[in-house]
C-alpha cells in the first residue's frame, strides 16, 4: 500500500490583551485560508476565530498577557487553536435567551465539526476543526 503523507501547514501569530486584536486575528486567518486556497467553510472558520479570540480576551488572558492564534491544515481539515494562559476550562453554558452575551462557544459548537479544549501550562488551548476537503497545497 502506497500512502502519500502530506505535512501539516501551520501559521500562528501572537496578540496582546486588547479587544482591538479580534479583527486582526480574523484578518490573519482569512489571509491564511486564502494563501492555502481554502474557500470551503471560510465564513465558518472566521466566525469561530472571532468567537474564540473574544472568549480568550474576556475569560482567559490575564492582564499583561496575550493569546496565540494557530491555524493548521492537514488531511482535508482546518484546525483553529487559541492558546491563552488563564485558568478555567470553557464550556457551553445554558444562557438566558434575553442575555446580551454568552453564546460564543454555542456558536462554535454549532458551526465547527468538532471542538474541545486541551490543558497547557499555564492555561489552555481551545480548538475547533472544519472538514474542507482534500489537501491540494
Summarize the structure.
The chain has 137 residues and is of the alpha+beta class. The chain has three helices and five strands. 30% of the residues lie in helices and 28% in strands.
Compile the SSE list and pairings.
Layout: E1 9-16, H1 22-35, H2 42-60, E2 66-74, E3 77-84, H3 104-111, E4 114-119, E5 124-131
Antiparallel strand pairs: 1-2, 2-3, 3-5, 4-5
Helix pairs in contact: 1-2, 2-3
Task: Describe the protein's architecture and organization.
- With 137 residues, the chain is of the alpha+beta class.
- It has helices at residues 22-35, 42-60, 104-111; strands spanning 9-16, 66-74, 77-84, 114-119, 124-131.
- A hairpin with a 4-residue loop joins strand 4 (114-119) and strand 5.
- The mean pLDDT is 88.
State the low-pLDDT regions, or none: none
Q: Order of strands in the sheet with the most strands?
A: 1-2-3-5-4
Give the rounded overall mean pLDDT: 88
Overall number of strands? 5
Distance between the termini: 23 Å
Strand content: 25-35%
What structural class results from the helix and strand content? alpha+beta
Task: Pick out its properties.
single chain; 137 residues; alpha+beta; 3 helices
Amino acid at each position: 500500500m502506497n500512502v502519500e503523507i502530506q505535512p501539516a501547514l501551520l501559521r500562528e501569530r501572537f496578540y496582546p490583551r486588547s479587544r482591538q486584536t479580534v479583527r486582526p486575528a480574523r484578518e490573519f486567518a482569512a489571509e491564511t485560508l486564502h494563501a492555502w486556497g481554502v474557500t470551503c467553510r471560510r465564513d465558518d472558520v472566521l466566525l469561530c476565530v472571532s468567537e474564540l479570540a473574544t472568549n480568550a480576551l474576556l475569560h482567559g488572558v490575564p492582564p499583561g498577557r496575550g493569546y496565540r492564534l494557530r491555524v493548521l491544515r492537514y488531511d482535508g481539515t482546518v484546525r483553529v487553536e487559541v492558546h491563552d494562559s488563564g485558568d478555567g476550562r470553557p464550556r457551553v453554558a445554558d444562557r438566558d435567551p434575553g442575555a446580551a452575551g454568552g453564546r460564543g462557544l454555542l456558536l462554535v459548537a454549532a458551526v465547527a465539526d468538532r471542538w474541545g479544549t486541551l490543558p497547557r501550562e499555564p492555561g489552555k488551548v481551545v480548538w475547533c476543526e472544519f472538514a474542507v476537503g482534500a489537501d491540494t497545497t
